Amino acid sequence: RLSSVCSVIIQIESFFSSFSIVINQVTTLHFLQSVFYLRFDQSTMHTLIRSTLRTKSASALVCAAVPRSFQESLLQAPLWYRSSSTESSLATDNSTADVKPGQSFKGHDMLAPFTAGWQATDLNPLVIEKSEGCYVYDINGNKYLDALASLWCTALGGSEQRLVDAATAQLKKLPFYHSFWNRTTKPSLDLAKELLEFFTARKMGKAFFVNSGSEANDTQVKIVWYYNNALGRPNKKKFIARNKAYHGSTMIAASLSGLPAMHKNFDLPAPFVLHTDCPHYWRYHLPGETEEEFSTRLANNLEELILKEGPETIAAFIAEPVMGAGGVILPPATYFKKIQAVVKKYDILFIADEVICAFGRLGTMFGCDKYNIKPDLVSLAKALSSAYMPIGAVLVSPEITEVIHSQSNKLGSFSHGFTYSGSPVPCVVAHEALKIYKERNIVDMVNKISPKFQDGLKAFSDSPIIGEIRGAGLIMGTEFTDNKSPNDPFPPEWGIGAYFGAQCEKHGMLVRVAGDNIMICPPLIISSEEVDELISIYGKALRETEKRVQELKSQRK
């Protein structure tokens, strides 16, 4: 009897202990409502409660005790900021009332890129179903202005019939053949020729085809190593990249990237990769330091790094003309002139990562044109095909090409490539995209519309929560800070950037969020009316975010 009584007492104690925990958890959920931009529906909330309770019966009782109004409401608040990631992306739950039966994708089967695992388990993704010009539509028919050109890439928008027709015709004729062992296809040869003519910052010798920007930058490393081995320089193998740069997510490309989230938990960067200063003048300049003085200091720091490591060990320097995923960071005055002088002094190759900047984005055909960069190697992707097919390219200087060819008998074949390198369908689509860029004078189009785009967004610079708005051509970045100072960031847990992004989505526009940085990079075909819409939604989201900041400051007091 005593044993039975004790057992009952333990169960009762367990229940009330669990109930107390749940009450605390419900309070926590209310806290999340006011601080984070997450949504908890009834099912998700019950899952959280049951994970805390010790018995199913106690779980059922406590779930019944929770106010029904709380159970049935969707709790919204800023996205839980994960300080380990630069990709504080919009993880809003798209379990809206108009989701059709059978169209819930919560807990889907895809391991999603640049997405926290809990998001795929607990939240419905935004599922895009259709594109039309500068707009995309989700599976529920909601329309969004695609203010990031998907991922900086759909330069010609989402419904360019000429690209669809080019792909269809090639699929009917020859859907695939490789380019190994001196066998290839006419589309790959035609595209290589056209690309070499297209790039005019300096004469280039050959084009090598890949499937993405990441593969392009991995290929750059292997080309440079092969080149130095051919020249009998086996120790000249290190690469210098920049903090906050993004060069891709494969192992080598992620190592070249200067973003901590690309390295943490992946045992990166590789030991042959070094990083030097990020050229963000607003954030890193010293008091009273001009842009040119800032550039001089960064060039001197680069030279010191080279001398410390030994010039005989440094193979190449890689840079985006404008840093994209790092926050749309433009080079300060004379920066590339000074950097190029340093690398040339020590016989170090210059790799221009044009994956985002190429094909008109900055108001010039290439970023190298805008900043007078004379690269030895160039990486291309994204707008190369307007993202209608996956394709990238590496442009190789005549000097490097000559060494690779002349030393091939000694070294053997250039044993690098991919099954789909120069695949005919992506090549014909890319070739057609280049024709369209030429025929429609895409650079002129960008230069006509970009002043309205730039001026319209920069007009918000006086907002008390904006530290800096920066950009060139049709690419812009906004950085949220307190007191308009780079030294006064908002508390990460406030998720200000994510809140702004969610307000944009609510009003029908998709942007890129990375921490408290917002990136906007619309298709190059954006019209004047669409720019007006973009600016209008940006303004609405900004006003709502300003109110949110005031609320959070009041709560903190």
Features:
alpha/beta; Aspartate Aminotransferase, domain 2; 3 domains; seven-stranded mixed beta sheet; four-stranded mixed beta sheet; 15 strands
What report would you give on this structure?
The chain has 557 residues and is of the alpha/beta class. It has 3 domains: 2-72, no CATH class; 117-157 and 443-556, Aspartate Aminotransferase, domain 1 (Alpha-Beta Complex), CATH 3.90.1150.10; 176-439, Type I PLP-dependent aspartate aminotransferase-like (Major domain) (Aspartate Aminotransferase, domain 2, 3-Layer(aba) Sandwich), CATH 3.40.640.10. Helix content is 45%, strand content 12%. It has 21 helices and 15 strands. It has helices at 2-35, 42-52, 56-65, 68-72, 117-122, 149-152, 161-173, 186-198, 213-230, 251-256, 260-263, 281-284, 291-309, 335-345, 367-371, 398-406, 408-411, 424-439, 442-458, 496-506, 528-556, and strands at 128-132, 135-138, 143-146, 206-210, 238-242, 273-276, 314-319, 349-353, 377-380, 392-396, 466-472, 475-480, 509-510, 512-514, 517-520. The protein has a 7-stranded mixed β-sheet, with helices on both faces. Strands 1-2-3-13 form a 4-stranded mixed β-sheet. A hairpin with a 2-residue loop joins β11 (466-472) and β12. The protein is globular and about 70 Å long. The chain starts with a helix and ends with a helix. Mean pLDDT is 87; it is low at 16-90. Belongs to the class-III pyridoxal-phosphate-dependent aminotransferase family. InterPro entries: Aminotrans_3 (IPR005814), Aminotrans_3_PPA_site (IPR049704), PyrdxlP-dep_Trfase (IPR015424), PyrdxlP-dep_Trfase_major (IPR015421), PyrdxlP-dep_Trfase_small (IPR015422). One of its GO terms (biological process) is gamma-aminobutyric acid metabolic process.
